Amino acid sequence: MESIEFISTGIKGADEVIETLYPGDNIIWQVDSFEAYSFVVKQFVRQAAADKRRLVYLHFGCHAPLVDEDALNTANADFKVHTLDATMGFESFTSRVYQIISAEDKETFFVFDCLSELQESWCSDLMTGNFFQVTCPYLQEREDVTYFALYRNAHTQDTIARIREVTQLLLNLYYIDSQYYLHPLKVWHRYSPVMFLPHLLTPDGSECITDSGSSADLFSRLQIHTKKLDYWDVRFEEAKPYLNAPLQEQAYVKENLLNLLIGKRSRIASLSRDFFTLEDLIQIGSREIGTGYIGGKSVGMLLARKILETKNPDFYQEHMERHDSYYIGSDVFYTYIVQNGGWRLRMQQKTGDGYFTAAEELRKILLTGHFPTTIKEQIMVMLEYYGQSPIIVRSSSLLEDNFGNAFAGKYDSFFCPNQGTPEERYDAFLEAVRKVYASTMSREALEYRLNRGLADKDEQMALLVQRVSGDYHGKYFFPHCAGVGNSSNLFVWDKNTDPSKGMLRLVFGMGTRAVDRVNSDYPRIVALDKPERPPLLAYGDERKFSQHYVDVINLEENEFQTIPIEAVKELPLKTNVRLFMEPDFELARYFRETGHRSRKVPDIVSFTRLLRHTDFPKSLENVLAVLSHTYDYPVDIEFTCNFDKQEHYRISLLQCRPLQTKGLGRKIEFPKDVDKNECYFSSKGNFMGGNVRLPVHYFIFVKIKPYLALTEPQKYAIANQIGTLNHILKGKHAVLAGPGRWGTTTPALGVPVRFTDLCNMNAICEISYEKLGLMPELSYGSHFFQDIVESNIFYIALFQSERDVTFNEEKLLGQKNILEELLSGSTEEEIYPDVIHVADVREENIEIYSDIVTQRLICT
C-alpha cells in the first residue's frame, strides 16, 4: 500500500482529532467570526513556513489580510499573495483563481479568505457553492492542501450540502468562554470511534467531550438555525419594510436591488434607475427563479412597458396587454454548467485554441444536463401557475438587447405548447431551457461575439419565460397579428416617406414570420407616416408579395406549426376577419373578365381595414416615438395585438432594444452625365444604409444559371467558398452580388450563406431573376437586417423587371475572373470559377452612390 504523507495543521489537538491532513485535502472551517478563522490560518501558515512549503494566499475579503507578509518575509518563507476583486463577477473571478492555481507547482498550500465574503459581491449562495464546486476538485487533483472558511448560519442548507459533497474535511470551530472547540462533520478517508464528537483544543492536544451533560451544555450555547434564507432572499426581505418609506429613504435599498437584478454600469441600467420603483424591483424579484441578473431581453421588455405606463398612462390602461412573466436568473446558467461537469470546458472555451473546439463539447453537455433540485422545484411552481397556457422560453443574456449589441437571432427561443400531463409539460419545458442554454455555444453566436470583440466578455444566459400572447381559435392558438416595429425607417420606397415616423413588419398570427427571413412569404411592410399605402406593388401582384402561411400552436398535436392562410380564415377568430384579410380584387376582376365569375376568390393578408380604419398604426407610431425619445436612440420592438368582437385591441409589448441604424448621412454629390449602360448597376430605391459613397475594389458575383444547375450539396459548397472569400477580402472594399436571397435556408431561392460568410463585405446585392423564381426580399426589421446594420454593410435589391433598374452583368463578367488566384492554397475543396466570378476593379475607381431623399442609387 502506498504510504500517505501526513501534514500538520499547526495545531496539535486538531492533528490528533482528524489524524492530520493529507495531500489533496480541502479544509472547510465553519466559524462564527473572522478572528476564529484567523486563529487556525496563523497556525497553518506558521507550520507551512517551518516545513518549507510553498504557500499562496488569495485575499478578496473586506478585511485586513489573514496572512502576515512581514512575518513570512522574516522567516524567509516561500509564499505569494494575490489580491483579487470579487466584484468582477463569478466567471472572471473564478477564471482568475483557476489561472493562479494552474501557475503553481503541484502540492502547493493555498489559503483563501472566508468564502462568505463573496456574498457581498455576488449576493448569492448559489454562486458561492458553484465557486467551491469548481475549485475544490481541481485543487484535490493537484494534491494541493487548501484552507477555506464559511461563516456559520450564513448559508442555505443546500449550499452547505453541495460544499460538503466535494470537500475532504468539513470542520466546525467554536469559540466559547475563551476556548476553541473542534467538531468534525466530515473527514475523508479517516475514522476513529470519537472523531465526530466535539473536542476541546488545549495547549497539549485535545480533550474529547463524551458525556451527555457536557455535550448538551456546549451545544445549547450555540445559535443553530435549521433553516436559513439565501443571502439573495434576505436582501429582498430587508427591502420590503421600505415600501412605504419616503423616496429618499428608499434610494439606497432600491439601488441595491437594481444592482442585483440589472447591473451597475450601462445605459440601460441608468434608464432602469429612472423608471423602476422599489415596488417594481421587489415584484420582479418575486418572479425570479434562482438568483442573478434577469438579462437584457427581460430588462428591455420591462423597461419599455414601464416607460409607456409612466408617460402615457391612459393609453397603457386601455390598450396594453398586461404580462405575468417569470425570469430564470443568470446564476442558474453557471450552476447548470458546474453541476453537469462542464466548467473545465468553459475555461478551455475561453482560450483562443479552444474557442470553437471546446464549445462543441460544452454544447453537448448543455443539451443533456440535469438541474439542481431547488431550481426544479421552483420551475414546477411556475408551471403550475401557467397551467396549460402556451409559454415561450426566450434567451435573455447579459449582453443581449443592449446599446451596441443586439444579438438579434443569435440565441434560440422555444415555444412550449404546454399541453399534456404535468410531468410531460415539465419535461418539455426543461428541454426548451437546455436548448436555449446550448445556443450560447452555437457557431453563429460564437462568431458574432468574436466579430464584435466580445469573446472575452462574461456572457451569462438568463431566461425570460412569457405567457404566449393570443387566444384559442379552434384547435390553434395564436395572436391576431404580430410584428416588429422600428422607430427609424430607412426602408423608404419613395421620396415622400418620412423616415422619422418609423415602420412595421406586420404578420397575421405568431410573430416568428416577422422577425425571420421566411422563404416564399412576405410580411406587410408599413411606413407609419402613410400606413395605408402598400409598397412593392410594382414588383408583382399583391398576392405574390403577401403572407401565404401563418405560424400557430396546434393545441391538439402539442406543437408549433406553420399552416396555409386558407386554413385559418374559417376559424372562430372572435373578431372581424376583414381587419386582416380582404378578397384578391385583382384576381376577382380577372375571373369576371375571363367568364369565371363563379370561382371562389381567395383572400389576401393585406391588413387594409386595420391600417385605414383603426388608430392601431397611430398607436404604434406613438409607442415608438415615446420609447425612442426616452432612450434618446432609435428603438426596435416586438409586439402582438389581439382584438375583441368590437374591434377593440390590446397590444402586448414583448421586446424593446436599441436599434442599430445608420443615419441618412450627408448629401452625396453624384457624378454628372453618367450613362446607365456604362454603370455596373443603378436603381430607384430598394436599398438600405443611408446616403453613401463607397469605393468598390472587388466584385464577387454568383452567376444564376450555373448556380441553379448545381446539386444542393454543391450549392452549400458555393456558400462555403463565399465565406472563404469573405475572410480573404476583409477590409478590401468588396461587394457581394448574387441571385435571390443571401442567407436563405432554401438553396433554390438564393445562396445559403451564414451571415458570418458575408460579414466583411462593404455591400451586398440581391438580384431578381423573376422567371427563374429567385427574388430579393427587403427584410428591414428582421434579424438578417440587424446583422447587416451592425456590421455596417450597405444593402441593395435589384429588381431587373423595374423600369429604373439596370444591372450590367456583361460588363461585370467582362472582367478577368481571379477566383482561382485568390483561393489558391486557401482551400482543398473544389473551386467553382464557372459559378463564382471575382473581379478586381481597383484601377477603375468604381464607387457606389446613394441618396435617400431622391431614392437614387448608382454604381459607376
UniProtKB/TrEMBL annotation:
Residues 293-667 form the Pyruvate phosphate dikinase AMP/ATP-binding domain. InterPro entries: PPDK_AMP/ATP-bd. This is PEP/pyruvate-binding domain-containing protein. The lineage of its organism: Bacteria, Bacillati, Bacillota, Clostridia, Lachnospirales.
